[in-house]
Amino acid sequence: MSKKGGGKLVRAAFQFLKKAHKRPGGRNRMSGERLDHQQRGGITYSKQHSSLTMTGYHHRPGGIDHYGRRTTDVGDRWDNGVYSGKVEIQNPSPPPPWIPKLTTDGKSTFFPDDWSAERIDNATSDAFKNSTSRNPAKGTWEGFSDGVWIQGRYDPSTGNIGHGFPSGNQQTGRP
């Protein structure tokens, strides 16, 4: 896909996220803040690593990184369009100029490039609502929607979804 076409998809995703920014979360619907975390990522301080780390970031509309994000070392690719890659986010207060993701070997899994932000939001909600497994002790869940295995976190005390991302195991025929 051309950069110009990909740019349209990035703008459309940004507009969707902007509209959803202040929406509250609910049982099966991520809050606007968690939706932004899922799709564009953010920066947080990691006590485990004693440094800043990138979090989230699971959507590259048209295969184009959102502004201030970059993906390298694209690795695993599955037939359903899900793939993984090493990710970094631009540091608003350098140095360093870029902040890597320090968990999951620095990788994020990505929803298919041709999926809109809204489709990802709906698939995540659907996968959570019909999840095949939930672990209240860890606050984790896993489900399937629109041909993609999705996993994430939820609040066991309320049953509300936190966020979701493509599983790193997209093999067909999984339980």
Write a structural description.
The chain is an alpha+beta fold and 175 residues long. Helix content is 23%, strand content 30%. It is built from three helices and ten strands, in the order ααββββββαββββ. The protein has helices spanning 3-20, 32-40, 117-129; strands at residues 42-46, 51-55, 69-72, 83-90, 98-100, 107-110, 133-135, 140-145, 148-155, 160-166. Strands 3, 4, 5 and 6 form a four-stranded antiparallel β-sheet that branches. Strands 7-8-9-10 form a four-stranded antiparallel β-sheet. A hairpin with a 4-residue loop joins strand 9 (148-155) and strand 10. The chain starts with a helix and ends in a 9-residue tail after the last strand.
Secondary structure layout plus pairing:
Blueprint: H1 3-20, H2 32-40, E1 42-46, E2 51-55, E3 69-72, E4 83-90, E5 98-100, E6 107-110, H3 117-129, E7 133-135, E8 140-145, E9 148-155, E10 160-166
Antiparallel strand pairs: 1-2, 3-4, 4-5, 4-6, 7-8, 8-9, 9-10
Give a short summary of the structure.
This protein is of the alpha+beta class and about 180 residues long.
Structural class assignment: alpha+beta
Q: Give the overall average pLDDT.
A: 92
Helix content: 10-25%
User: How many helices does DSSP assign?
Assistant: 3
Main beta sheet: strand number and arrangement? Answer: 4 strands, antiparallel
Helix-strand string: HHEEEEEEHEEEE
